[in-house]
Amino acid sequence: MKLFSMPIFLIFALFLVSSAMDMSIIGYDITQTTTADTSASNWRTDEEVNAMYESWIVKHGKFYNTLGEKDNRFQIFKDNLKYIEEHNSGDHSYKLGLNKFSDLSIEEYRLGYTGAIPKGKSNKLKSDRYSPLSGDGDVLPDFVDWRCKGAVAAVKTQGQCGASWAFSAIGAVEGINQIVTGDLITLSEQQLIDCDTSNYGCDGGFITDAFDFIIKNGGIHSDKDYPYTAKDGKCDTSKKNTTLVSIDDYEYLLEESELALQKAVANQPISTGIDISSRDFMLYSSGIFSGVCGELVNHGVVVVGYGTENGKDYWVVRSSWGAEWGEEGYIRLERNIKQETGKCGITILASYPIKTSN
């Protein structure tokens, strides 16, 4: 499927038409992928792999229409399974596992789930609100998790709609609204998809343009009042008497640094984008992700915390692929690496909504 052609790149999550693909990524029991001897002479027989494949098909509700497609997918599944088991037999800070991506080649995954995403069209200036102070001016907590503070809603599922930009923006707005008002209200990504004409609905969009829409619209509806359909729709203007959650403004981080992002996350959940194009990301199951990824940001997410485990620093990142992907819908990315832009380009698009009163 071709990328949407635009002068400025968008956040995209493009999808293949095949019924064998969707965004409802479901994890697999990791014990099935950690005990095998993966040497060429001792790896699983085709009969063993086929039994796992048939079980996986049932588990994930897969159905292949094209003649020979099931056999072709089996070969890809087998290759991914071997890759998973080889990885998990090594000494790594994270584990891989079977999920609903497991019948996709890495090329298909990249085509169907990634796209380029620089900054939005807004002329908004960067802010020094969360810029690190010189010397010992900043004393930041060692551990932050906005889930524990009630500022993060349950992980959502975007389905076959390329609207990670909307889920990223809404997650940050839900967070700052709870911090200011004390109420966690789950908000409507669908309203952004249907009504924000500066973006492109299920074909992609800009996180900060979503913030712009919320400000100009006087707020955003709850997802109860304007529920998610996972497809483009006509803007429903009949909900004028329902409650709107508003924000006052939004800003970009002044600098693309992990220390600035840490300071920001210590104060609120932060919208950003990351590069999800690696095979290890595709098959991620648990642990602190330290695998290969670049800085071609292609998926909108929310950073909801950070911490350290066994001496390794990490970010807590919420995706929009359902609670059965990764660590209950989250991935922990390694933190404080050499690149200023952080793991998978996590600092490049960092932005946040501002709300000062109820």
TrEMBL record:
Residues 1-20 form the signal peptide. It catalyses: Specificity close to that of papain. Pfam families: Inhibitor_I29 (PF08246), Peptidase_C1 (PF00112). One of its GO terms (cellular component) is lysosome. CDD domains: Peptidase_C1A (cd02248). The keyword Protease applies. Residues 140-354 form the Peptidase C1A papain C-terminal domain. InterPro entries: Papain-like_cys_pep_sf, Pept_his_AS, Peptidase_C1A, Peptidase_C1A_C, Peptidase_C1A_papain-like, Prot_inhib_I29. One of its GO terms (molecular function) is cysteine-type endopeptidase activity. GO terms for biological process: proteolysis involved in protein catabolic process. Keywords: Disulfide bond, Hydrolase, Protease, Signal, Thiol protease. Residues 53-109 form the Cathepsin propeptide inhibitor domain. SMART domains: Inhibitor_I29, Pept_C1. Its EC number is 3.4.22.14. Belongs to the peptidase C1 family. Cysteine protease responsible for the cleavage of kiwellin into kissper and KiTH. This is Actinidain. It comes from Lactuca sativa (Garden lettuce). The lineage of its organism: Eukaryota, Viridiplantae, Streptophyta, Embryophyta, Tracheophyta.
